[in-house]
Amino acid sequence: MNLKTFPGGLHPPDSKHYSATSPIAVCPLPEQLVIPMGQHIGAPAEACVAVGDLVKKGQLIATAKGFVSVPIHASSSGEVVAVEPRLHPMGKLLPAVVIKTDGEDCWDDTLQGADPAELSGDELKNRIRAAGIVGMGGATFPTHVKLSPPEDKKIDTLIINGVECEPFLTADHRLMLEESERIFDGIDILRKILGIERAVIGIEANKPDAIEKLSREGAARNVAVQALQVKYPQGAEKQLIDAITGRQVPSGTLPMEVGVVVQNVGTAAAVSDAIRLGRPLVERVATVTGPGIKQPKNLLIRIGTPLSFLVEQCGGLHGEPAKIIMGGPMMGQTQLSLDIPAIRGTSGLLIFRQEDLPKKLEAGPCIRCGRCVTACPIHLAPTTIAAYGRLDMLDEANAYNALDCIECGCCTYICPATLPLVQTIRYAKGGIMAKKRTI
Amino acid sequence: MENQLYLSSSPHIHGGETTDKVMRTVIYALLPACAVSIYFFGLPALSVLLICTIGCLAAEALCCRLMKRALTLSDGSAALTGILLGLNLPPSAPWWLSLFGAAVAILIGKQVYGGLGSNPFNPALVARVVLLISFPVQMTSWTAPAPLGSGLDAVTAATPLGEMKTAVMLTGTLPELATSGFGNYLTGNMAGSLGEVSALALLLGGLYLMLRKIISWHIPVSFLGTVIILGGVFWLVDPGTYPSPLFHLLTGGLMLGVFFMATDMVTSPVTGKGMLIFGFGCGLVTVLIRLFGGYPEGVSFAILLMNAATPLIDRFTKPKIYGYVEQEAAQ
Amino acid sequence: MLAAVLSLGGIGLVAAAALGVAAKKFAVEIDPREAAILEVLPGANCGACGFPGCSGFAKALVNGSTAPSLCTPGGSDTVHKIAQILGVEAVTADPKVAVVLCQGDNRKATEKYRYLGLEDCNAAQKIADGPKTCPGGCLGLGTCARICPFGAIEITVDGLAVISREKCTGCEKCIAVCPRRVIRMTPLDASTHVLCNSHDKGAAVRKYCQVGCIACTLCKKNAPEAYKIEAFLAEVIYEHHREAAQVLEKCPTRCIRDFSTGYPEGSSFPPPTVPVKPAQVD
């Protein structure tokens, strides 16, 4: 097999065995859904329902504020019991709509599907936006924005991201195996919107079954599949583009600069649902896994389902949890408790016990081993940026291109001095951005 | 339960490689060479190694104490410096010489700069050069190897490199030992510093380090390559005056320098390209000193000189950042 | 011999002449007052005046574009000296010092979670708004102590920042970096402070802190002049700080404290250690 990849990166143990063979199971309906208003990059949506309102599944409950924003819909039918700040995966109290489910799970019957062949590109895009579709890989960037390149940017390639390079996560893998029809349909719709033919699905070589299946099915639909070397962060947008097309996205710009649009496999499937069935984004596949879970599974979950409910569906906790992570172990966010809802960007729930955490070591001095420099997929000098960041020398950190850091975590993972490099760089980036805004 | 949860910034897993593990692995890789030196030179070699190691550990502990810092003995770097220093001394080195060297290595070579990671020069080499200049007699009194159980007494002898230098200076031609006896040089059966003597054991350790990915291939390959090619050119031009590359490789401190001193992470460049330049510079200076300099051996001077050039090399070999190549071309 | 003396002497003369000419020709005009002012400034280059370092401030003073009173670290003494040099009237503000309005260290206040990572308050604050349950409490990771140009801030054994009333010069650098805004400027002669920064209701404060202000209003009832209560938090009205000291005993959570020198009573510090700075890779 001709495997492509990018320079840099590393090979953390993929730990996908926990859930890779478990088919997607439908998560039952929880009693209560907590649906935060901010689930995407951009301005949070604004609630348009009040306490006491009865809502149907798929009904609009919050409207988009601005272009880089998307509306939010009820994930099941029931009664709105609260519109108030609730604990958000970000660890803060943020506005949310709380729905007490009625158990009917009844779809809003005004939602109408359509034949994509009969709709224009703009109509399709508007439907995608109305359905609240965002990037499902975890970054949750509104999809319609990515599909609206300025006139002067010529797009020639659609890359579908099926890499799933984060260890532990298997949701995209299972989706590719079980829902390839929807993914291909979504790809066709996305190609129509962009007005291009070339579509490539990138998949890491540790998912040979998915590569085999999608290659076979894709051949008839003019969709290529590119097997990629197993290496983290192969699924990062710019690294994926580099591996597949050999083009480098210039620093500080978007993939459209090199004529590429990247969408996650989950996004493609959601696009298909939004157009064919008229159904907004109210559920997604997430991997509930880790050594702290009794029976790791891939679940089809409703947005707003409490994490504790997901854990219950997977046989409960295995031992005392020490770290609750939303997303994967390399870029996921730690959570304050299990009383937090799953949102659109929740690609996984990962639970570690005390014994699974890296041994806590005093961060030592940098020994200049250069491992972080070798591993950095952006070819930065992480230890230098972090050193400047630590001393609040923001101009120097900026001169070493701190802002180009994608926060993939490779440097921290590999650092023998166990320095919190990414966190320090992230901190420096925050400082640099704040400084830029004030000038 | 809430209070037991940890929150932190991503990533939440770690590769498991830590500074002390790296240092330990390097120490393991040096053990064969230590064993060979003890085999050939007996108890004096063992005592030099022990005094150096204990001396370095004590000096490090003292520094931490004086500077009110947490004790850093467990990171293994002081012990490693001690062993490396021991391998840089002649087996006949008196105890006070070893102890003084250990103090110099840790105090002047490392801690004055701020400890591990901040020293510009390889501490063991700093100590070796200080000793070589301050105590030339003790530092160049070599004994012929007397393998354990052979019943031989320690007698003074010259190192092959030293003998070659003397012969070339006096007669202008190579002595016989520069053209034969390579088998002995390979196994370490010759006079010299503890770590000068066994090319084979050092090579073994170096390969182990490369296999474990503790060091990369760049510095050893470019260092050795430069010595072989440059030494080879001179040899081909005039085999009567200049020794063969093989002689260069197997005698002196080259193997120790190549695999264990030049590759010291703290004092060598961080990028592959930088390491290649660094290794080339080391090789160049080594050969020049060996063939034309006043000292018979130039490895330590070469590495120290290149240590000084490391910040400069790093500056000029900054990696091209992703996304900047095309941008520059477009402008 | 003579030739050597002559030639060397000649070289000396020529060089001296050249230097003399150069010194005259390229002489830089410096207002002598600028140097004199630089002499009396503290020299910490702390930036409290808003100018790039003490020399920048001195230059601005000579230009007449700023007032001497801006050098808060120097105190009235320095201001008077500068005014003398410039020949202007000295206007000094009342000296102020910074106080950490929190006593909730690791023993007395609870944490939402255990924080792992960079020892820095701003970095910790980015993760779920910081580990301390109290939204206003001191995180104790020492960002203020590191930035203080006068070494006036220390972190106690139990993880709380405290500021020395003697060493603090009022440059306000710590106030700018604190993510929880728990440091406040207070008049130097005021010794009584409400050491709490939580605007939560009393019941909530009780849950997470043993020494927080629960807005019971007892202080205000006993000394109505000296205290005000805003958003469930008592505050000393510093114009009447003398009266404030008289009701210390009334506070049920002992969050009103009186200390005129040094650190708040009972602060104990770990043995001093020098932080190990990360090495730089160029």
Query: What percentage of residues of chain A falls in helices of 4 or more residues?
Result: 25-40%
Question: Structural class from helices and strands of chain B?
Answer: mainly alpha
Helix content of chain B: 55-70%
The strand count of chain B comes to 3
Alpha-carbon Rg of chain B, integer = 21 Å
Any low-confidence stretches of chain B, pLDDT <50, length ≥5? 327-331
Mean pLDDT of chain B: 87
Biggest beta-sheet profile of chain B: 2 strands, antiparallel
Count of β-strands of chain A: 17
Distance between the termini of chain A: 52 Å
Discrete helix count of chain B: 15
Q: End-to-end span of chain B in angstroms?
A: 57 Å
Description:
The complex is a heterotrimer of chains A (439), B (331) and C (282). With 439 residues, chain A is α/β, with parallel strands linked by helices. Chain A has 3 domains: 24-110 and 280-356, Ubiquitin-like (UB roll) (Roll), CATH 3.10.20.600; 122-277, Rossmann fold (3-Layer(aba) Sandwich); 371-438, no CATH class. Chain A has helices at residues 121-130, 143-146, 171-178, 180-194, 208-220, 237-245, 265-277, 307-313, 371-375, 382-390, 394-399, 410-414, 421-438; strands at 24-26, 32-36, 46-47, 54-55, 60-63, 72-73, 78-87, 93-101, 157-161, 198-204, 224-228, 260-264, 283-289, 297-302, 321-326, 333-334, 348-353. In chain A, the strands form 4 sheets. Chain A has a 6-stranded mixed beta sheet with strand order 1-14-13-17-15-16. A 4-stranded antiparallel beta sheet of chain A has the order 2-8-7-4, with no helix packed on it. Chain A has a 4-stranded parallel beta sheet with strand order 11-10-9-12, with helices on both faces. In chain A, strand 15 and strand 16 form a beta hairpin. The mean pLDDT of chain A is 93. Chain B contains 15 helices and 3 strands. Chain B has helices at 19-41, 43-66, 77-87, 95-108, 123-134, 136-139, 160-171, 182-187, 199-211, 218-237, 245-250, 254-261, 272-292, 299-316, 325-330; strands at 6-8, 142-143, 156-157. In chain B, strands 2-3 form a two-stranded antiparallel sheet. Chain C contains 10 helices and 9 strands. In chain C, a hairpin with a 5-residue loop joins strand 3 (153-155) and strand 4. In chain C, helix 2 crosses helix 3 (53-63) and helix 2 packs antiparallel against helix 4. The longest helix of chain C is centred in the N-terminal third of the chain and has 24 residues, at 2-25. Chain C is elongated and about 95 Å long. The B-C interface holds B 2-9, 67-70, 114-115, 117-118, 266, 270, 311, 314-315, 318 and C 110-118, 123, 126-128, 131, 271-274, 276-279, 281-282.
